[in-house]
Design goal:
It is a single chain. This protein is α/β, with parallel strands linked by helices. The protein has two domains: 156 residues, Rossmann fold, CATH 3.40.50.170; 69 residues, Roll (Methionyl-tRNA Fmet Formyltransferase, Chain A, domain 2). Helices cover 25% and strands 29% of the residues. It is built from six helices and eleven strands. The strands form three sheets. Strands 2-1-3-4-6-7 form a six-stranded mixed beta sheet, sandwiched between helices. Strands 9-10-11 form a three-stranded antiparallel beta sheet. The chain is elongated, with a radius of gyration of 20 Å. The N and C termini lie far apart (66 Å).
């Protein structure tokens, strides 16, 4: 049963702007008989809410601001890749790796006005090994496991405690490789940015931009896949090579 402050409803909405969550959603949908809806856009969420009153809305990864009339009407659960209140804010994966963390806690929390400040439903351990893409995909599957648990147990979330530590959202310009770094830092920097639709690690050299992905670390050396793009404004087009 929904808490008194929220509308009682049937069915569930899973919202994500990343299609890498879709397979986990299908697995979840197949394991629990209910009215399930997948939404991946702001307009899709609005349209779906005009058609149904969900018991929960689960936000796996969302690029848009959620209006207060949604999270104050429906019980909205979002997922964050830190042991809150540590690491509230943007770019949690990248900020965790830069801070030297090798593992974290995936947290399911109630959506409230302040970012990542809501009470906590559940946490699960999450390793920070591999590329950003593989970590995000693992987090998606773990999130869907938590969704199953929330639906089965209808838990009351617990308020966060302790001093909050805030992460700042990274900008694309911050994906530029540092001029001086050791092999471990180079490896971590490349892999933490290696995900679909993310600004990959890069080096600017003359009129060329070298983007680095698929990093491997062995014997103190880093190997990576390099994609070279050319700045036509600088006067050299690809056809001139």
């Amino acid at each position: 049963m929904a808490p008194a402050r929220f509308q009682a409803g049937d069915g569930y909405i899973v919202a994500s702007s990343r299609m890498w969550h879709y397979d986990a959603y299908l697995d979840l949908k197949g394991s629990l008989a209910a009215d399930w809806r997948w939404v991946s856009t702001k307009s899709g969420l609005e349209d779906t809410l005009s058609q149904m009153r969900p018991r929960y809305i689960f936000f796996l990864h969302w690029n848009w601001y959620v209006p207060s009339e949604i999270y104050e009407t429906y019980e909205c659960v979002c997922f964050h890749m830190t042991d809150v209140p540590y690491g509230r804010g943007g770019s949690p994966l990248q900020n965790l790796i830069l801070a030297g963390h090798t593992s974290t806690r995936l947290t399911a929390l109630r959506m409230v006005e302040q970012m990542d400040a809501g009470p906590v439903y559940a946490q699960r351990p999450l390793e920070l090994t591999g590329s950003a893409q593989s970590i995000y995909e693992t987090a998606g599957w773990k999130s869907c496991e938590v969704i199953r648990w929330i639906i089965d147990n209808n838990p009351a979330p617990t308020a966060q405690s302790g001093e909050a530590t805030l992460f700042e959202r990274r900008t694309p310009a911050q994906s530029e490789m540092a001029k001086d770094a050791d092999s471990n830092r180079v490896f971590d920097f490349i892999r933490m940015l290696d995900a679909e639709d993310y600004p990959h690690a890069f080096i600017d050299y003359g009129n060329m931009r070298l983007e680095l992905t698929d990093a491997r670390l062995a014997n103190g050396k880093v190997s990576a896949c390099v994609t070279i793009s050319f700045d036509e404004v600088a006067g050299l087009e690809t056809g001139d090579m």
